[in-house]
Specification:
- The protein has about 50 residues and is mainly α.
- It is built from two helices and no strands.
- The chain has a domain of about 35 residues.
- It is globular.
- The two termini are about 20 Å apart.
């Protein structure tokens, strides 16, 4: 279970509990870009030193 970005606690209106929700995204758009993982904001935020 995610402690943030879930159905009850959507920081930035982002829900990461399902692929569909991540593709829908939140206030800043989709968290995932199908076929372009390296360009996906979610993946970029996992890189050390990244500014999510």
């Amino acid at each position: 279970m995610l402690s943030c970005h879930n159905v009850e606690k959507k920081r930035g209106q982002l829900d990461l509990t399902s692929r569909e929700a991540a593709l829908k995204g939140g206030e800043n758009g989709p968290a995932l870009k199908p076929g372009k993982a390296a360009d996906s904001p979610l993946i970029k935020s996992l890189v050390p030193g990244a500014d999510p």
